[in-house]
Q: What sequence folds into this?
């Protein structure tokens, strides 16, 4: 089964962003817009409320944003993405991950979904695989970690270990203490050539063999876009679950990569996440620009990065269960938008993709919030919280929500010198009040967005992840870059292969290395 391959010709005809009069008008409107709106600016999509009151806004900026999107042929680009058009032009394929979660999927997707669900039903009915070792890296790893942390934190009868890093300590940690005879190995790799994943998979196979497991390949499952390669590795066809070239690795959570999630916390969780993502797809497709949440978040991100010059984006989920959302969004955003060359091979001409980082609140407040409030640079913040908790400690949840709202309000409103001075005098600071007050000033006006989930359900999490996917797509379109390739990562992989041979003595150390690299190859080799 192949996705449509009709190229979107206008993608290669984009003028550099600084040359567009629409861009100049957008920048001017952003500079003159309110730093944050005193009136509530809250949008809704797929059950999620997104409060953009903490972002720059004005009627002029709204009109300029719509004009900019029109100049970039947003309607055609959005249709191409959701219809399976060739939007990944540098790799000549679609980016059709939305096809994996549509309520009425195309035949091949429906078949693989049913095969996965049947595998889970049989395993559950036979009470098999008390332990699962999930082997994957990047997009084949973070989404599953996120899902299990969100919905398996109370544990199930199956224990899941993750093995991503090539570090041998990670390997020992993943396998230590497990019963090989009751362990399923899930190898998730789009290409089934990823060095770390295959090396770790080979060690896991040897671990099964060393324990005397009679049919070790019967305890290994592969999820890949290269089923023939997985079969050649030795995995039985019935244990190979397929996804397709038009599914990027960082979007593969929606495929059978979620087999581990289904085994650990149920296929219903996976189904709920798919439904939530599909609902966000529908919103993205149908909502007018002024009410389209992914589009409005993207425009705010463009203002913050390319107009105001903020170099990073902080993700602060005020929910313990969403701690793994930070690295998930980090990979999704930075691997997609970490580009500085347009589709035509020219410099973009404006700052692109921010560094994405963060930590779950309230731990974050005691780690880096001082920098957010009073540092010389600061960063926009995406606050994420659930209105309703899934525990009975009401006072805890009220305190959590209070901290989230208070930190956000402090970033928006700030504190003037006069306010700080009055506080110091009322606290009895005396003659030191004027000097001490200077240390208590908050500049305020720091951009932020509040994202409120009704509860942390699979539907809500699926919708949240799709929201960020579409936001990133729109930002890539405006910048004129391809958010679906990752050539920078590939270059490092090629270099690593050559250095590996040199460290192993399979070939001499090449003269092409710089002096430092040559020194350390010789040192490590010896």
A:
């Amino acid at each position: 089964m192949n996705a449509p391959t009709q190229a979107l010709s206008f993608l290669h005809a984009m003028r550099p962003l600084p040359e567009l009069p629409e861009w100049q008008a957008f920048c001017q409107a952003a500079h003159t817009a309110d730093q944050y709106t005193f009136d509530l600016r809250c949008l809704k999509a797929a059950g999620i409320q997104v409060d953009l009151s903490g972002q720059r806004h004005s009627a002029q900026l709204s009109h300029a944003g719509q004009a900019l999107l029109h100049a970039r042929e947003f309607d055609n680009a959005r249709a191409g993405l959701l219809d399976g058009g060739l939007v990944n032009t540098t790799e000549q394929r679609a980016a059709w991950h939305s096809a994996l979660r549509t309520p009425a999927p195309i035949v091949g997707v429906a078949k693989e979904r049913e095969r996965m669900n049947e595998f889970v039903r049989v395993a559950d009915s036979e009470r098999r695989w008390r332990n699962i070792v999930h082997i994957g890296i990047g997009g084949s790893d973070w989404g599953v970690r996120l899902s299990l942390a969100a919905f398996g934190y109370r544990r199930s009868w199956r224990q899941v270990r993750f093995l991503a890093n090539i570090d041998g300590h990670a390997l020992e940690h993943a396998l230590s203490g497990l019963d090989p005879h009751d362990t399923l190995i899930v190898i998730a790799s789009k290409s089934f050539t990823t060095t770390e994943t295959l090396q770790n998979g080979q060690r896991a196979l040897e671990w099964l063999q060393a324990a005397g497991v009679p049919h070790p390949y019967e305890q290994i499952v592969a999820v890949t876009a290269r089923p023939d390669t997985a079969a050649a590795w030795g995995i039985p066809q019935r244990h190979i679950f397929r996804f397709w070239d038009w599914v990027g690795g960082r979007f593969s959570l929606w495929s059978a990569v979620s087999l581990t999630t289904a085994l650990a916390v149920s296929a219903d969780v996976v189904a709920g996440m798919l439904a939530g993502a599909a609902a966000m797809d529908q919103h993205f497709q149908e909502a007018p620009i002024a009410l389209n949440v992914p589009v409005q978040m993207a425009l705010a991100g463009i203002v913050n990065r390319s107009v105001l010059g903020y170099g990073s984006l902080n993700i602060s989920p005020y929910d313990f269960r969403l701690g793994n959302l930070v690295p998930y969004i980090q990979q999704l955003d930075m691997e997609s938008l970490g580009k500085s060359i347009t589709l035509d091979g020219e410099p973009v001409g404006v700052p692109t993709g921010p560094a994405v980082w963060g930590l779950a609140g309230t731990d974050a407040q005691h780690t880096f919030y001082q920098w957010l409030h009073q540092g010389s640079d600061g960063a926009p913040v995406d606050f994420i919280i659930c209105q309703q908790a899934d525990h009975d400690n009401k006072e805890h949840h009220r305190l959590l929500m209070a901290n989230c709202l208070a930190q956000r309000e402090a970033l928006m409103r700030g504190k003037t010198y006069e306010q700080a001075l009055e506080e110091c005098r009322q606290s009895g600071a005396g003659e030191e009040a004027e000097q001490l007050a200077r240390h208590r000033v908050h500049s305020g006006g720091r951009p932020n967005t509040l994202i409120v989930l009704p509860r942390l359900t699979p539907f809500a999490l699926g919708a949240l992840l799709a929201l960020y996917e579409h936001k990133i797509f729109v930002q890539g379109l405006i910048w004129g870059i391809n958010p679906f390739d990752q050539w920078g990562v590939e270059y490092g992989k090629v270099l690593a292969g050559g250095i590996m041979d040199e460290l192993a003595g399979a070939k001499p150390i090449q003269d092409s290395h710089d002096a430092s690299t040559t020194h350390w190859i010789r040192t490590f080799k010896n």
Remarks:
- The chain has three domains: 17-71+287-391+446-479, 97-274, 487-525.
- The chain has a mean pLDDT of 95.
